[in-house]
Amino acid sequence: MKESIKVIRTREIDYDTAKKEILGYYQNYSESYDYEVADDLELDYEFVCQVLEDLEKEGRLGLVE
Length: 65
Known about the structure:
The protein is mostly helical. It contains 3 helices and no strands. The chain has helices at about 15-30, 35-40, 45-55. Helix 1 (about 15-30) packs across helix 3 and helix 2 crosses helix 3. The protein is elongated, with a radius of gyration of 13 Å. The termini are far apart. About 10% of the residues are buried. The model has no long low-confidence stretch (mean pLDDT about 90).
């Protein structure tokens, strides 16, 4: 069996742009994991986690439990 390697590309964007893109993402996909957001938007995972945490603190995004 042949193994494949997935190349993960990330874009460098500023914080405010990332917030807008992530909010837009959740408007289209109301339930998504943080790693899906990072992968689909081609953003750094740690960066996405920080933005998501800030959005939750601001009350602009709620976590589903």
